[in-house]
Amino acid sequence: MKRVIFHLLRLSWLMLGLFIFGFAINFLVEARLGVSPWDVLHLGLTNYLPFTFGQIMIGTGLVCVVGSIPLGVKPSQATILNMIFVGIFTDLIMAAGWVPPQDAYLVRSLYLLIGILGCGLGTGVYMTANMGTGPRDSLMMGLYKLTGWRIGVVRTIIEIAAVTIGYFLGGPVGAGTLAFCLTIGWSSEVFLKLFTFCAKQDWFIRRISLLKTKHVNPGEAHGS
Fold first, then answer.
1. Using CA atoms, how far apart are residues 152 and 140, in angstroms rounded to an integer?
2. Residue burial 173-198, b: 16+ Cβ < 10 Å; e: rest
3. Predicted TM-score of the model (pTM)
4. pLDDT digits over 144-167, tens only?
């Protein structure tokens, strides 16, 4: 029972991270200053396909997952959940209008900042659930295994390809796209280090240890 509760807590933490990430994407879109490289592609595809922004995110995620399997990277539970729910949360939040459009440049710049920090926070949350990575990371790891190139080089090539295709499809490239590329790594690192630091604290370890089931030999349980 304790093991089930522990798994549900990890799953809830993962889903919280995906929700935060979807929320942050809405801020980036409403900033209208340029979005992340992959979202340039996603929004570019909405000009040609009869699907919502979130549905296209799910579709490209599926392509990444399927493409990574022959490269030796099997999707985890978190990979599938990431593929599905970031798109769902993004669409739901957009439809609900939780991030209202703004015309003032200062407010839009603030939206951009919130979006970048939110993506970093969301990444820090769902990655520290330790249940796996996202579909685009799976593709990155697959190409890394195939080529033997450094991960940074592979990731850069993928990002450049996504933003280039998205740009020619009419996706929104701008100063915000460059700002995202230059800062998302730092934003993610800050929150990853924060949550990792918290996980190492005695008060956290004591509480988590209460939820983990200790294996007991049936003979020992009966005193034999």
1. 9
2. beebbebbbebbeebbeebbeebeee
3. 0.89
4. 999 999 888 998 999 999 999 999
